Amino acid sequence: MAILFGAVAPLNAQYYYFGRNKVHYENFDWRILQTEHFDIYFDADMLPMAETGARIAEEAFGVLKEDLQHTITYRIPLIFYNTHIHFQQTNITPGFIPEGVGGFFEFMKGRVVIPFLGSVGKFRHVIYHELTHVFMTSKLSRISKDRKWTDTYFPPLWFVEGIAEFYSTRPDAQAAMVMRDAVLNNYFTGIKNINAVYGSFIMYKFGQAFMEFVRERYGRWFVLRVLENIHLSEDFNEVISITLGKPVEQIDAEWLEHERKKYYPLVTTHSSNALAAKKVIDGGYNFDPNVLIDSLKRKYYIVYTANKDGYSSLFITEMDSTFTIELNTERVITAERGREHESVHLFEPSLTVSKEGIAAFVTRSGESDVIHLYDLLKKQEVSKLRFDGILSISDPSFSEKGDILFRGINGEASTDLYVWFREEQKLKRLTADNFNDAS
C-alpha cells in the first residue's frame, strides 16, 4: 500500500467524496525528459510545460541539497499531467483523487506526481513542496541506515507538511489570514495541541508559521537539526525541546507572543467579522456567491456552490430584501452522482449569474470540463457547452450581451482566455501565449 504525502487545497480532503470509481478517458502518449537528477514523464502535448517543470525541479534540488545538507544519488521519477482532470486518471495510486489534492509523493517507489493547474507559480509551489518530502524521506532513511535501525523514524504530519510549505512558498495573504484568525479568535493551538487540527489545511499553515517563527527567532538551521536529532526521543515535542534547549510550553508561549505582536494591532483599526458583517449562509463549505434579483416578482436570491454533505452542488437561497434573512434554500444541481456532473470545481471560480437569471457554471463531465447554462427562474437547463481541445475551464463571466468570457487550459497545458458568443454560437480564443491568463 502506498504512503502518500501530498499538497492540498484549503479544504480538508477527508470531507470530500465517499466512494468513487476511477475512470480512464485518455490514452496518454508518454515521453521521458531526462535531466541531471530527474526522469520526467509527461504526455507529448505538454512538452513546453514539462521543460518548465524540469527547470524548476533542478532549481529545487539545489536549494534542498544545501539547506538539508543531503543529496540524493538515485534518479527521481517525476510524473507531470497537463490538467487536474488527467491527474485524476493516474494509476500511480489506486484511490480516487479529490479536487483538493494538488500533487503527491508516493513513498514506496519514490515517485512524485503533479498536475499543472493553470499557473506556473502554483506549479513551482507544488514541485518544491513534493521534493521537500522526497529529500526529508531520503535524509531520514540515510540516518536510520547509518545508525543501523530497523525502522525509520518520521516526524508528525504537521511538521512534515509544515517544512514542505516552508521550503515551497513564502508566507502570503492566505497564510496570514489563517494565523490572524486563529490568534484573534483564540483557536491557536501551539505545537503541543496541534493535533486538534490534524490533517486540515489549517495544520499545514500552522506548521509553516511555526517554521517561519523559528527561522526568525533561532535561524534556518532548525529543520536540519531536528531531523538529525529525531532519534533522541520517541516524543517529537521532546525532540524540538532538546533542539531549541527549552521546554515546549515556553516555545509555544514565545510563538504565540510572536503572532500576537503581528496581529493584535489590527484590533485597533479593524472590526471583527461578527460586528462588521452578518453571516447569511451557514453550514458546510460555501463558494462563489452571486446575487440575483427577480424584479418582476420582487424576489432576492444568492446563488452559490457548496459542499454541505459530502457532495459538491449548486444552490439558490431566497433572501429578504435586505439580504440578511434566509427564507428558503434549494439545491439546483448535485454533482458526483453521474457522468453529467462528475464534480463542481469548488477551488476555482466556476459560477457566474446573468441579470436575466441564467447561471453559467462549470462541472467536469467525462474527459473534460463543460459549461452548463441553467435558467434559475424557470428551473431548467438551457444548454451545455463543450469545447474541442479545452480540457479545463474556470472563471466564467457574462458580458452585457450574454456572451461568456472564461479561462481555459488545453492539452499543451497552455492557459488562455476565450469568449463564447451567444448569438453566433461560436468560440474565439483571445490569447495564445505562455502567460497565466485569468478572466
Structure description:
The protein has helices spanning 47-67, 84-87, 120-146, 157-168, 173-184, 201-218, 222-229, 236-244, 248-263, 273-276, and strands at residues 4-8, 30-34, 38-43, 76-81, 101-106, 111-115, 285-294, 299-307, 312-319, 326-334, 343-344, 351-353, 358-365, 368-375, 380-385, 390-398, 404-410, 415-421, 426-429. It is of the alpha+beta class and 439 residues long. The chain has 2 domains: 4-267, Neutral Protease, domain 2 (Orthogonal Bundle); 280-429, Neuraminidase, CATH 2.120.10.10. Strands 1-5-6-4-3-2 form a 6-stranded mixed sheet. Strand 17 and strand 18 (415-421) form a beta hairpin. Residues 10-19 have low confidence and may be disordered.
Radius of gyration: 24 Å
Beta-strand percent range: 25-35%
Tell me the name of the CATH class of the largest domain.
Mainly Alpha
What percent of the residues sit in helical stretches (DSSP H or I)?
Answer: 25-40%
Structure summary, number of beta strands: 19
Mean pLDDT over all positions:
89
Question: Structural class of the secondary elements?
Answer: alpha+beta
Number of helices: 10
Strand order of the largest sheet: 1-5-6-4-3-2
